[in-house]
Design a protein that fits this description.
16% of the residues lie in helices and 39% in strands. The chain has helices spanning 24-34, 46-52, 80-89, 117-124, 197-200, 285-293, and strands at residues 8-13, 38-42, 61-63, 73-78, 97-101, 111-112, 130-142, 145-152, 155-159, 167-173, 176-183, 185-189, 212-218, 228-231, 236-239, 246-251, 255-260, 263-278. It is an enzyme of class 2 (transferase).
């Protein structure tokens, strides 16, 4: 239960799908304004919002992505990707996020577009609980110089970015060698990301309350390389042979950077920095596993 007074509310939309919200956006905006809430959209959405939703209340305002941390609540309309993108943007302080699933899977997007208003009404009155998910950071250095830094929530993938062929990675934990693995790449996932790409590559399902990172080789060229779970208070270094010209580093399937020979990729926990999601009282983690992934269910015979 939270006693936080909610006054400033942001609405963030799934990119390229604004036209699907022709009814939802005006209704939601008007509903919030009637309850004396200040409503904000991103500046980058201003042209589309004002053009597509001619009946939207004129009291709405527009802010930069860097100002999202000043809001009391963020409502996302989209899927897991929209929610993850917002979480990664709030690098200073994460306001609670009320995720409305407009997509297909909606594994961490807690609320359905059909019946979310009841829980939203409770939320803006301060009657809500929060689920905190740890954020992690990727630092890429070359010859001691930092060349890239970003946060992730779900996973980081290292693989080839052009010709699909095997390559070798060296993975260390706190400067101690874990393994050298040859294959198509490596996935480093958080517990909440363990049900995404890592799971498809044979990694374990890891409960979000477990403070860990999962290292899952992609198609390893050896039967000896299996997924590994390690404590997330340890830093991980990933290195690759100088004969490899370029590799691709992808964060949460949303941001990609090219890394070349001599780069070291370091992954660590961002201390005291969490993504905060409004919890759906009707959903539990194991319920979601069964509903979204049919985990543990048997076919009738």
């Amino acid at each position: 239960m939270s006693n936080t007074v909610i006054k400033n509310v942001g609405i963030l939309l799934k990119p390229r799908r604004v036209t699907e919200f022709s009814t939802i956006i005006p209704n939601l905006t008007e509903w919030l304004i009637r309850r004396k809430k200040n409503v904000f959209f991103l500046n980058q959405e201003e042209a589309r919002v004002t053009k597509k939703f001619t009946n939207i209340p004129k009291q709405v305002s527009f802010i930069e992505a860097e100002e999202l941390h000043d809001l009391d609540l963020i409502i996302t309309l989209g899927g897991d990707g929209t929610l993850i993108g917002v979480s990664r943007s709030c690098t200073k302080k994460s306001p609670p996020i009320f995720g409305v699933n407009m997509g297909r899977l909606g594994f961490i997007t807690e609320f359905s577009k059909v019946d979310y208003f009841e829980e939203l009404a409770k939320t803006i009155m301060g009657n809500y609980e929060i689920t905190k998910l740890q954020l992690y950071r990727v630092n890429v250095t070359k010859k001691g110089k930092n060349i890239f830094k970003a946060n992730f929530l779900n996973d980081v993938v290292v693989n080839k970015n052009n010709i699909s062929r095997m390559f070798t990675l060296t993975v260390e934990c706190e400067s101690e060698l874990i393994f050298n693995v040859s294959g198509d790449g490596l996935i480093i996932s958080s517990p909440i990301g363990s049900t995404a790409y890592s799971l498809a590559a044979g990694g374990p399902i890891t409960h979000p309350n477990v403070n860990a990172l999962v290292l899952t080789p992609i198609c390893p060229h050896s039967l000896n390389h299996r997924p590994l779970v390690i404590p997330d208070d340890k830093s991980i270094d990933i290195k690759f042979p100088v004969k490899e010209d370029y590799l691709s580093l992808t964060l949460d399937g949303q941001e990609a950077v090219e890394i070349d020979k001599g780069c070291i990729v370091t992954i660590s926990k961002v201390k005291n920095n969490f993504a905060k999601f409004i919890k759906n009282p009707d959903r539990t983690y194991f319920h979601t596993l069964k509903q979204k992934l049919t985990h543990g269910q048997r076919e009738n015979r």
